[in-house]
Structures are given as structure tokens and as C-alpha cells.
Amino acid sequence: MSGNSPALDAALKRFEGLYPDVIELSLGRIERALERLGRPQDRLPPVIHVAGTNGKGSTCAFMRAMAEAAGLSVHVFTSPHLVRFNERIRLAGKLVEDAALIGWLDRTYAAIEGGEITHFEATTAAALLAFSEVPADLLILEVGLGGKYDATNVIGAPALSVITPVDYDHAAFLGTDLAGIAGEKAGIIKAGRPALTAIQQDVAGAVIAARAAEVGAPLYRLQPYFIDAMPEDIALTGPHQRANAALAAMAMQLFGNSTRISQAAIFEGARKAVWPARMQRLKDGPVTALAGGLPVWLDGGHNPHAARAIAAYLSALGGKTALVTAMLASKDSAGFFVPFAPLGVDVFTCPNAPGHQASPPAELAQAASKAGLKVTACASLEDALRAAGASGADRVLICGSLYLAGEVLGANGEAPE
């Protein structure tokens, strides 16, 4: 179920009929739309462009909080949204309002003139139009998928390109070769413009370095001591978030030339960042009430890399966890469950949010069982939560899909603001 207003839903739905029959990774469609809109990508605040497999959203959230702590006005573009489409476009610190967003969507639709374009490309064009017309000091622009041919990769000279950890995901579009995936992510690195990379696997790191050398881009690498220097009480939960905060801190120092954004602002931002559905402890509400009084956590992680980070946190936490899980059919469900096997978690599979091609609970249960986990297939999220609450666990973690996370947040009255 959409959390959008009917008017916004109608404005967004018009773009669905413009999909090409075969969606090829290309910048041509959005470039044509932007030309008709007067090239808003040339009238943006300084841009920090962010690609990677995991940690993009969290890193963007930390950067935004750090920059705002320094007194900067910040635009942010992220995807997907959890409850309302407006979450994707933050203008000078506030989520875009319906009336203004519909106006930018109307202008974009008129500019396309019935030509082929994907929904993400069209809404990215509308977002860039919005960012070009509202003043700000910084635009944090998150890649949707890949990098080289992503609709956001129309920025010719970003202030900084940032690449978070690269791993396997979106195999249908990016393949299963890690070097190839890293090459797609590294496509956001631009000639002569600085780039920053997280600590990477050797194969991915080599590809990123080669791309930077090829285009003459100064390349900076996150170092472990930056992670160690982060305050202990950062806002987001889990040891992997310390690395995301450190990457954001280094990005802010590079963006601010180590003077505009102080260490005090960086630490304040690390302590104040907000990014929903990343090891988020849910409040008391209709969803959590189903778990019989157990603490309920929520994480949108949906690939093996994310699962390893979640499992590491649960291991450090101790006790027993019950996983309530739904996943898209396109995801590596078998690989997702493997990191949880040593923890002895109980798994309760359920349908994903409506409107998405999901793995049926029974098939997802087979993947969890092959990983050595005790698993129960459930007919609904509600049934899965009740069963998890009665399993003898110390806590319940809902995970495996951002779409499921959005459904949970909306049902529990915790839509992002």
C-alpha cells in the first residue's frame, strides 16, 4: 500500500506507461529529458556523489548530519523510499512537500513529450530540477543502481565521488563478477575530480584505483584509524556503522578542505544521524504488539554483505534472536542466511510487501533450511511475528527487504520524517 497522497500517486503513475520494452542501462533517456528541462544538472550546489553496494544510505545520512552540524544547508537524494516517495528528495533539510513535488513532476512529464523513460530516470530528472531551483550549500546524491549508467551519473564535475563497500547485488543488471560490479560503481569517478573509497576487497579496490588513474582523479582511501577515531556513541547501531561514519567524516574533511567542517561538527553529526530501518529499535505500536512483549528491531539489509554485518552485531549482542524475513525473488536468499547459521537463530518467513516480485515464504524457508537454520514458513507478517514472539527468543529482528521495512514502519506509525 502506498503512503503517498492520491494526487502524488497520480502524478507518479503517469511515468509508468513510458517504460521502454527492454530497459537497457543507458544515460541517453535522462540526458534527453534534462536537455528539454534546460540542463538543471549544470545549476546544482556542489555535489557529493555516492555509489556502492552497502552503506550508501547510512553514509549519506552521516554526511548530511555532519554538514548540518557545521551550519550548511543540505539537499539529499536517496532511494528507494520506505513509506512515502517524498523521502527520496530532501530540500535544504526538509522532505519535499507534495504540491511542489507535483509541480516538478508535471514539468518533467511535459518535457519528456511521450518519449521512452524509466520511472527512476524521470523522477531523478524531476529531483535534479528541484535541487537546481532551491538554494543549498551541498547536494548529497545517492546512486540508484550501479553507477556508470545510473540516472544520477549526469554530474560532470562533482565536488567528490564516494564509493562505499562493493559486493554482490542486483545480479540481473550488474552480473556476478566482482571486478565488473566494481567497474560499474567506479563509473561515477570523473576526470580530475577527487574520489574517496571505503575499505574494499582487493579485487574491487584495484578496479577503483585503475579507474581513478585512468581519468586523473585524486583517490583517497579510508584508513582504519579513521574508524577508530569515531566516537563510541554514534547514532546508528552496529560496528559496520562506525566504518560508514568514518567514511562520511573523511568525505566531509575533503569537501570542506579540513577547515569548513570542524571535527566538532563531524562528531556531533555522527551522534545525531538518523537513517530508518538500519538496526532500528521499533517503538511500541501495532506491529511490535504482535511479538508478545519482545523487543523488535528492523533492518532493511537484503544481501550477503549486509547479512554478515547484521550477524556480527547480533553475535556481539548475545542471547537468541528470531528472524522474521521476506525477500525479493531476485535476491541471493541462500547467501543471505549463511552468516546467521552459527548464531542458531530461528527463522520465520513471510510474504513481502504487496506489489513486488517476492520469494514465496515456502521457497524462502527452503533457502534458510539449506543454510542449517530452523525455519517456519508463515502466511503473513502478523503470523510470523506471533510465532517469533512465542519462540523463546530474546528479541525479534525483521529483515531481508527494504519494501518489508517500509510496510512495517507504516503499519507501526513510524514513517520517516
TrEMBL record:
EC numbers for this chain: 6.3.2.12, 6.3.2.17
InterPro entries per the UniProt record, alphabetical: Folylpolyglutamate_synth, Folylpolyglutamate_synth_CS, Mur-like_cat_sf, Mur_ligase_C, Mur_ligase_C_dom_sf, Mur_ligase_cen
Cofactor: Mg(2+)
Associated pathway: Cofactor biosynthesis; tetrahydrofolate biosynthesis; 7,8-dihydrofolate from 2-amino-4-hydroxy-6-hydroxymethyl-7,8-dihydropteridine diphosphate and 4-aminobenzoate: step 2/2; Cofactor biosynthesis; tetrahydrofolylpolyglutamate biosynthesis
Family indicated by similarity: Belongs to the folylpolyglutamate synthase family.
Entry function: Functions in two distinct reactions of the de novo folate biosynthetic pathway. Catalyzes the addition of a glutamate residue to dihydropteroate (7,8-dihydropteroate or H2Pte) to form dihydrofolate (7,8-dihydrofolate monoglutamate or H2Pte-Glu). Also catalyzes successive additions of L-glutamate to tetrahydrofolate or 10-formyltetrahydrofolate or 5,10-methylenetetrahydrofolate, leading to folylpolyglutamate derivatives.
Record NCBIfam families: folC
Name this protein carries in UniProt: Dihydrofolate synthase/folylpolyglutamate synthase
The species this protein was found in: Hyphomonas polymorpha PS728
